[in-house]
Fold this protein.
Amino acid sequence: MCDFCHQHGEGKKWYLNANNYAEDLLSDLRRKRFITRFFEDPGHLAKGERALTALDVMPDFLWRGVRKKITAKQQVKHFGQVVPIEDIERILALTTSVVRLACICRHVSVGKEERYCFGVSMEPNGGGIAKLLGEIDASYLVGPHTAGLESMSKKEALAHIRESEHEGNCHTVWTLVTPFLAGICNCSLPACYAMKTTVTHKSPVFFRGEYIAQVDAEKCNGCGQCVKVCSFKAFRPRKKKDKAEVRALKCYGCGICRSACARGAITLVDRAAVPEAASLWL
Ligand code: SF4
Ligand code: SF4
């Protein structure tokens, strides 16, 4: 289990602990201020990435410490974890209501408003987080998905999240001042700043998932589809038609390769069952 499970999980995976979704966490004014600033000014995402790009040219040993500080700071404020679809189902079963909203990463990075983000709550109609988001000035959204928060059933939300998986998006959960957990995102490169920060700039702002992908060589026909969809470059380089092989130390356990495999050759196993990667979270 990751650090957050130990700190905020009470014996479970932290994102399956109902206490982390509790409405009373939203009465914290510091948290409310953070959420308001985060969503009112999405320009901070591009600014942060420009700073990381400038640092990338420095030798790794010089800014390794800076990367660690970025991760530590984010762990307090806004940190995530990769979560496969079966755990998304468990989160939806645990919570009461869902709203969908435009992804601010995609708005800033590719100029497109697409509803890839979900707010979950233990209260009806998106609860306090939806109320707070509804009060935020989001006039920067210019279309086509400017209609604010869209309430939907958990079944509909799951169908959208599954669809986004088939488009190659990796599911993640997010804190808004840890441990308050209210967001499910569907991330991909190059649109998402969290992916860019973690993968491109090697400054983790989310934990790896609690799982690792494994390929059944008997079922694999070497089509290479799984290799194409993995945003984390976790597959061993292969020649045409070689069977696929996952490098456990690179795998984030998102399960995107699994849904792309027409042969059903890929499964997710518990990270704890893979000794070389069992304690690798960042
Ligand atoms: S998608 Fe499935 S069958 Fe194709 S290479 Fe990957 S594991 Fe093998
Ligand atoms: S190998 Fe599969 S589960 Fe692992 S990171 Fe890549 S797509 Fe995700």
